């Protein structure tokens, strides 16, 4: 559904850590794209390695499953509506469906990786995202599904609820109630308002409950040792306000030092600041129980670790097959991070309030602490392409 510079929401976490942002790895665009255009046809680079996804062959099963999730979405009325007025010539729902089916077939029948990549370059056209500069520069961040402790019932320890989607949300008048109006300054006043009785599960810490709203899903370990998972079910209509950016603006944390650990340390040392800063984010997120299933993106289909991305769905084709090119973080044996060039085929299956414009992509990294640490290291420029059959 990148954190910290934007401490974002559902698939929209923003930047967890400050990492150097190298120049885009690949960018066939040589001229500015037409004003207002989000995608433009690009020429396949001649370098053989351009379309080479070194992990794809070992992960074919996961990729096929992710493709099937996109195909499930594309069969829905929501997809018909989304593509009805899609503004890029030649990009339509039927072509996206045929492209996914052909790519999946090639994965299943190609005798070797080399044969597969040759077929992909022969049969597919590249559409490159124009990026944030019209030249293809796209900024990548990572997001993940956190794991926290929780309780099915409120106790002295577990006091901060996650809430179900209000049945009447679609009929709420605009502007919607703010976060402050819904849960109060301290996050404990919702029992007196429109969220009363909609409590789904309770967490120990207010910031943890807020971070679940940031990520849009979570795997929760209950007090009896069982697990309980939640996924995004809707939100109020407000722009996202970043906790990290607010702390920077107020001089509480220098921009160069902003990481998740630094943010958590600040609120641990100054717990009273939670009541000052969390209410600044008027947007409020609602959840549903997902019965232990995988996290779900904004297309209402599961997202796959390393194979699902979030983009601005007012500009990018939902459910479509894409190729990302960026510098990817890997932890070495000493525990430090390094970044190396990576190209990976992905499905565009999520979105987020902080992921705006043709120059922003969030990659879903996975579930748990290790995924969160890696997601926090994704803060780099790269390039984004969509693949569609030539005919």
Question: Characteristics of this structure?
Answer:
disordered N terminus, six-stranded mixed sheet, alpha+beta, 391 residues, six-stranded mixed barrel
Set down the secondary structure blueprint.
Elements: E1 39-42, H1 60-74, H2 77-84, H3 93-109, H4 113-123, E2 124-129, E3 138-145, E4 147-151, E5 160-163, H5 179-183, E6 199-203, H6 206-215, E7 217-222, E8 227-235, H7 243-249, H8 260-269, H9 273-277, E9 285-289, E10 308-310, E11 321-331, E12 337-350, E13 360-367, H10 369-375, E14 379-389
Parallel strand pairs: 3-13, 4-7, 10-12
Antiparallel strand pairs: 1-2, 2-14, 3-14, 4-6, 5-6, 7-8, 8-9, 10-13, 11-12, 11-14
Structure characterization notes:
The structure is a single chain. This protein has a six-stranded mixed beta barrel with strand order 3-13-10-12-11-14. A six-stranded mixed sheet has the order 5-6-4-7-8-9, with helices on one face. Mean pLDDT is 88; it is low at 1-24. It starts with 38 loop residues before the first strand and ends with a strand. Helix content is 24%, strand content 25%. Strand 11 and strand 12 (337-350) form a beta hairpin. With 391 residues, it is an alpha+beta fold. The protein has helices spanning 60-74, 77-84, 93-109, 113-123, 179-183, 206-215, 243-249, 260-269, 273-277, 369-375; strands spanning 39-42, 124-129, 138-145, 147-151, 160-163, 199-203, 217-222, 227-235, 285-289, 308-310, 321-331, 337-350, 360-367, 379-389.
